[in-house]
Amino acid sequence: METGKRRYLPPVRLFDAGAVDGLLGDLRDCYRAVFCAPPWNEPSQRAEEFAVAVRQHAHQAGFVGAYVADSQGVIVGFAYGFDTAQPFPTAGSYATLADLLGERTDELVGRREVREVAVHPDVRQRGLGRALLAATVQDVPSWLLTASAITTATTFYQRLGWHRLIAAGGLAVYLSPPA
Ligand SMILES: CC(C)(COP(=O)(O)OP(=O)(O)OC[C@H]1O[C@@H](n2cnc3c(N)ncnc32)[C@H](O)[C@@H]1OP(=O)(O)O)[C@@H](O)C(=O)NCCC(=O)NCCS
Fold this sequence. Notes:
Elements: E1 13-15, H1 17-35, H2 45-57, E2 64-69, E3 75-83, H3 93-101, E4 112-119, H4 128-137, E5 142-147, H5 151-159, E6 163-168, E7 171-175
Parallel strand pairs: 4-5
Antiparallel strand pairs: 1-2, 2-3, 3-4, 5-7, 6-7
Coenzyme A binds at residues 34, 117-119, 124-130, 146, 150, 152-153, 155-156, 159.
């Protein structure tokens, strides 16, 4: 992987359900480097669960995936999102969100959900996160869920003009700025 202080901005590439299997190992490794490390500190099993989840998410309506790779072809950042189902889903983590938001889940329906944004620690603060998020959102009104205590993430979204819809129970929901 290319690291160091010089500015490094590889192009953002898009991927869809047809391409996800070929990228899966690399996406999982990047996920592990990003989220199974501070400040997220997720157990490494979560990277395996992510690999299962992203294959399913890739078949959701409106799926858009974006990644950046270094000159060796190693993925060093990725993001993806998809349309929010209507009515608002209640399975899994959506149930917690539905409890938190009540009728305000209506504000998320019709928007794209950004499910993941991840940049390898070695290449942060060079504009890759901004570029990946832009490629995933594509000016479609969007939302995302994050942890309110992870200030790296909340500061990043706020710097990009996203605004917080709600913060409670350790979670925070952000809405994208108007296009
Ligand atoms: C959050 C994350 C995606 C940002 O990626 P990045 O490539 O470093 O972000 P960028 O370089 O594009 O920064 C975009 C803006 O956010 C700001 N920013 C990024 N990280 C920041 C930090 N740790 N502290 C303060 N500001 C930060 C940048 O200064 C920049 O603002 P500017 O253009 O006004 O100067 C990356 O830190 C990451 O992967 N973190 C772990 C995973 C995570 O938290 N994902 C999001 C929650 S699901």
